[in-house]
Amino acid sequence: MITRLTATAGLALLGTTALAQTDITVAIQLEPPNLDPTSGAAQAIDSVLYSNVFEGLTRFMADGSVVPGLAQSWEISGDGLTYTFTLRPGVTFHDGTVMDAADVKFSLDRARAEDSTNAQKGLFADIAEVTVIDPQTVKVRLAQQNGAFLFNMAWGDAVIVAPESIETIATNPIGTGAFAFADWVQGDRLELTRNDAYWGTPPALEAATFRFIADPTAAFAAVMAEDVDVFVGYPAPENLPQFEADPRFQVLVGNTEGETILSTNNKMPPFDNPLVREALAHAIDRQAIIDGAMFGYGTPIGTHFAPHNPDYVDLLDTSPHDPDRARALLAEAGFAEGFTTTLKLPPPSYARRGGEIIAAQLREVGIQTEITNVEWAQWIEEVFTNKDFGLTIVSHTEPMDIGIYANPDYYFQYDNPDFQALMDRLNATTDPAARSDLMAQAQTIIAQDYVNGFLFQLAVPTVANAKINGLWTDQPTAAVDLTGVSWSE
Question: Where are the beta strands (DSSP E) in 346-478?
Answer without folding.
Answer: 367-373, 391-396, 453-465, 468-469
